[in-house]
Amino acid sequence: MKNILLTLLLLSSFSYAKINTMVSVMPQKFFVESIGGDKINVSLMVKPGNSPHSYTPKPSQMKDIAKADIYFSIGVEFENAWLPRFKSQNKEMKIIDISHGITKIVMKQHSHHEEEHEEHEAHGHDDHADNQHESKDPHIWTSPDNVKVIAKNIYTALVKVDYQNKIYYKKNFDKFINHINQTDKKIKDILSNTKPNSKFMVFHPAWGYFAKQYNLEQFPIEIEGKTPKPKELAFVMEEAREENIKAIFTQPEFSAKSANQIAKELNIKVIKTSPLNYKWSQNLINLAQAIAN
Ligand code: ZN
Prior knowledge:
Layout: H1 2-15, E1 19-23, H2 26-36, E2 40-44, H3 59-67, E3 70-73, H4 78-89, E4 94-97, H5 113-123, H6 127-132, H7 144-161, H8 166-190, E5 198-202, H9 208-213, E6 216-220, H10 230-242, E7 247-250, H11 257-266, E8 269-272, H12 280-292
Parallel strand pairs: 1-2, 1-3, 3-4, 5-6, 5-7, 7-8
Helix pairs in contact: 2-7, 2-8, 7-8, 8-12, 10-11
């Protein structure tokens, strides 16, 4: 009896050994879980409320790295500094860039050249601000078209590591592509009466790919990745007035102070929404709805 139990235990732990994966941001957790289902575990690096542009992993997360079979990177800034360290912590771990095959766009930033000189004098030349001008937008997951490419990359990687479950992954992949297509259709329906190139204002410019796919235009409040100073804020406010902006979107990872100031002055709404939401589809649909209103 004892032997049978032991055998059963060994068998079950063998057949249920899951693939341990790690992801950088929350929407990736949703994508990987949609395709990997119950064959995988997903650990999240950037916990809710933190910015993926400047994240520092916790020591406990280095333990997760030590156990991981795959790290799905997406191209957010903290990865540049940390992926090499993760790799040295766990040399067996595969690092899969799920942005592979996606054409990145330039991150839209305010720049007003008259003030630029003064700006740099006041704050010194920190390279973060300098690079912002040309940096590519890492928020690729806000476009359903991009998520199809991401899904394919995840599927391919899982099949490579766990070929015996290929049929299972394929079924989930097809279901997920269907989910993306339905999301896209819903967004198009919602925006069907919205004028092309309609403008929406955001604190942090995270919706560039969404805007591109649906012929919208996002206006960021942030200037070169920073909260605008009073003089700059007046400029942004003037722009919001000129463009007849009806609402401002903010996300909990960043301060809403300047958005609230503009909204109060122009008597418009502030709507909270985060591109880092796990409910990826509903989140995009909600944004479309808010823009359409
Ligand atoms: Zn961001």
